[in-house]
Every structure is written in structure tokens, then in C-alpha cells.
Amino acid sequence: MKILPIAASILSLSACLFASTGAMAQDTQSASAPIKNIVLVHGAWVDGSGWKPVYDILTKDGYHVTMVQEPLTSLDDDVTATKRVIDLQDGPAILVAHSYGGSIITEAGVDPKVAGLVYVAAHAPAVGEDESDLGKQYPSYTLKQPGAIKKTDDGYTYLNPADFPKDFAADLPLKQAQFEAQSQILTGAKVFSAPMTVAAWTTKPSWGIVAADDKIINPDLERFYYQRAHSHTTVLAGASHSVYESRPKEVAAVIEDAAKHAQQ
After folding, report:
1. How many CA atoms lie within 13 A of 198 on its CB side?
2. Which Pfam family, giving just one, matches this sequence (predicted)?
3. Dihedral angle sign, alpha carbons of residues 199, 203, 209, 213
4. Per-residue pLDDT for 27 more than 50?
5. Of 27, 61, 111, 176, which is most buried, counting CB atoms within 10 Å of its CB?
6. 57 C-beta neighbours (distance < 10 Å), count
7. Are 119 and 147 in contact (CB under 8 A)?
């Protein structure tokens, strides 16, 4: 007469174990699923439109991609603009930056929604550091050229349009590089000397792309950044500072690798 209650207890226990195992499997599957949200941050003197070749690849592959159009007026303003876009994401996101944008994501990347960072020929200073001082330790080709970087009377910088094609975009079609030279976003000089107050790469996984022929940022400085951050590093031989435009397939592949592995 006691068999039925015992059987019922066994069935109940089995159901609980099954439900628990199923939930654990679901959680594991969710945790290892690729991240679908990608946020792209541009650097100095340009805007987000340069990301279009990478955007096209990522969206074709099923990712939800958003570009930040930061004002380039101060590091605080640019971080705020980036956080505003991060807040719009419906789940975890990979934060990607080019050039000065690396300083922006180093600050903004501490946001809980950010699962990983991708630095594309980008700066990655530590707390208390700024990219201007680091650039002096690893001077770039452009920094050594008198008159290459210009400044307005009210403190905004731009790259000499005559130097832009060969320094910033040597591997882009000349007409495209010339257009970008004449459509620069003037960038506040103070953004380059603003020290980091946090460094997201100390707590978040990161990926880094070295543009081996970069004349704007010394490739050795890029290597230093990524080695220090223990970033998964890719070196693209022959790539200029405009690597995100000239080598979109390779850049998109690194971003997708980050999206697949950041939460593992």
C-alpha cells in the first residue's frame, strides 16, 4: 500500500532534477551564445560613416550594429555619447573603437552591458595615463612631421589635408582619402591629454588589431597596449591607420570572434 506514495515521490524528485538540469543547460547555452549587439566608436578627425564597410559585413552576418557619433569636444562628452548608445542596447554588447576612440571605450567600457572590447589601431591607456604622453614615448611618423597636425585659434585640431591621404589613409583610393581629408571633424586638442579615470580592459576581455603601416599611431605603441591588456592580437601587414575602411573583412572577423567568445 506504500508503493504509490514512494513512486510519486520518485517521480516528483525526477521532475525537479530534470527541470533543474534543463535550466542549467539553458543558462549555459545562453551564456555561451554569441553576442549580437555591436557598438562602433570612431576616432579623431573622422565620423562614424567610415565604419560602413564593417557595418555591412556584420549586419549581413546577423549582428545588430550601432555607430556612435561622438562630438569630439572632450573625453567626457565623448564617453557620455558612447554610454548613451550603450544604454540603448537590449543586451550585452561588444564595444569597438578606432584610434582615439580607444580611450573612449577604455572609460565607457566599464558599463555592465559591455562584455568585451575591440581596439582597432587604437589607444588603450591605463588609469592616470593619456594618449598624448604615451604618443611622445612612442612617436608616430606623423608626430615627427612639422605642420602635419594643425590647430585652430580656439583649440581644435585637424590633420593637414595635404598629409591626410599618405598619413591617415595610404591604402584607400586616393579620391576617397582626399574627400575624407576635406571632411574632417575638428577635434578638441584637450581630448588627447585627458587622463583615464578607469580602464575597462583590466576587467573585460579585449581584442586588438595592429595596423602594421600605421603612421598616425606608432604600431609599437599598439603592440604595447595590447600586450599589457593581454588582448587577443591580430597584426595586419601593410595596413594604414584607416584599416577599418581598407581591411573590413579582417576587422569584422576579429569583432565576430570577440562576439563569440567574450562571455566564455
Report:
1. 13
2. Abhydrolase_6
3. positive
4. no
5. 111
6. 18
7. no
In a domain, 1, yes or no: no
The three grid cell numbers given for residue 259, joined into one nine-digit string: 562576439
Full residue range of the structural domain in which residue 82 is found:
35-261
Looking at the structure of the chain, the number of domains it has is 1
Cell for 32? 555561451
Which three cell numbers, joined as nine digits, stand for 222?
A: 599598439
Residues written for the chain = 264
Query: Which letter does DSSP use for residue 240 in this model?
Result: -
* Pairwise CA distance, residues 75 & 78, whole Å: 5
Residue 231 in domain: yes
Q: Enter the C-alpha cell of residue 74.
A: 572632450
Measuring CA to CA, which residue among 142, 127, 121 is closest to residue 221?
Answer: 121
pLDDT digits (tens, 9 = 90+) for 83-105: 999 999 999 999 999 999 999 99
Rounded Cα distance, 213 and 171, in Å: 10
